[in-house]
Target: ADP/ATP carrier protein
Amino acid sequence: MAQNTSKEPLPPWGNALAGAAGALLANAVVYPLDIIKTRLQIQVKRKPTDSEPLTTNEVHYTSSLDALRKIVEDEGVMGLYSGFNGSLIGVASTNFAYFYWYSVVRTIYLSSQVIPKPPGTATELSLGAAAGAVAQVFTIPVSVVTTRQQTQIKGDKKGLIDTGREVINTEDGWSGLWRGLKASLVLVVNPAITYGAYQRLREVLFPGRLSLKPWEAFALGAMSKALATIATQPLIVAKVGLQSKPPPARQGKPFRSFVEVMSYIVEHEGPLALFKGIAPQVTKGIIVQGLLMMTKERMELLFVLLFAYWRKIRYERLQKLADLAATRAKQNMPVIVK
Model:
């Protein structure tokens, strides 16, 4: 029964719920890595001649482990969870929107073909990019607020609402909640590469399989995310720079574009600095994507079974009504439907 019904695709909201649930679990597990990579990405390396920090944080971090140690020493273990609530809201909304629109545009594409067949690599990337762009427009304000929370120094911690007000009260006004939107729209190539690579690897390595084992989904998710992260790391660093407070060296002047952020980083630290924080970024991405796809595969299977059960109950009820109607008709009795 389950094998036959699993051939029926989930509705877009079913895929969206499965993706959001997987993303929530995965990001909750590795959230401290998100804090570490954000702190590393916003700081500017200090030079021997510098008399004051060139970072938005008082403390300067030399590595991921150094950042972990200093954050715990200065802010306690809870410092590794700054902006946690806002981040989970952002993760859930972004992934729900992404998987929803990805399912919609993919269904539209397949239905437009005379003979439905899996889209090619270029088409898969385009569909993913289109879905990611729509999702970003609606969810980037939460990302901006969360990034601000993650980079707040000790003694200046604010909640989600207060941080949002702080962003709005800047010279950008309400538009400040959409800072980094252009970079985010460019960065839709990241999930596009991730899910495009995932679909392609799945078709090549596991052709015809309706569902994957947990370890198979984890491995495919990890490989696809690693490829996407390495390819887009400079843009990720630039986006974080746009959404956080500007370095003290800029005297409060915010960056206006991700190109300006990248130019500033290259000028002060060199080209390799565009890849700063890549170790925790890739580690986080591999774990998150692996857990996300593993959980999503299980959730999709669960939803398929639930939908099949619901259809079975509905069919049996309709069948009983039909049998009752036939019996009543033979007896010339009115049919009462409750």
Remarks:
- The radius of gyration is 24 Å.
- Residues 278-330 form the longest helix (53 residues).
- Residues 2-310 form a domain with the Mitochondrial carrier fold fold (CATH 1.50.40.10).
- Residues 1-8, 51-56 have pLDDT under 50 and may be disordered.
